[in-house]
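User: Could you check the structure of this?
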Amino acid sequence: MTITLYHHPYSRAASVLWMLEELGVAYDLRFVDIMTGAQKQPEILALNPMGKLPILTDGDVVVTEVAAIGLYLADRYSPGKLAPALDDPARGTYLRWSLFAPSVIEPGSMAKAAGWSVKAGQAGWGDYDAMLSAMERAVSNGDFVLGDRFTMVDAIFGATLRYMLTFKMIEPREAFVRYAERLGARPALQRSDAKNNEIAAAHGLGR
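Assistant: Sure, the predicted structure tokens are below.
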């Protein structure tokens, strides 16, 4: 079975590349030119009707959405290591913060930036300041979300936070900055950053 990541370096697929490097498994990259709308072509829509990246195929299995891809990969290729075992009490915390990134951080930050007026009790992401405090708490119990143990939650939650810090989309609290620095020191993340930069250069892409 071959893992293929449908990829563009300026999409969320860049984070999945980091996940694959952390796993140390063999994979193929398939470049999808989102700048020309290639993600809306029939072949891609057959895999993801949303016409968005990332898309990961593993043999006949198709997985989309960054958090879902990360959880799938860790359970399949690193159970008990990058994914806490099913009977590990830490698995609850692992799942909690893995899903917090796409369901709270991303929409909550977008709502703040767009100036949306919503009632915290009616919005799935709740109150923005409470969100930041919750995030700060999540990364203040050790080097990683599960303390001294790096797991796939750090590639899910951490990639979101790291991206937002880079583009000044979130308040650079000291706990966030230090956590991002610890992630940035990981060889797998450095390799994935280098690959994303190489692919961007090869296709003449610029920020």
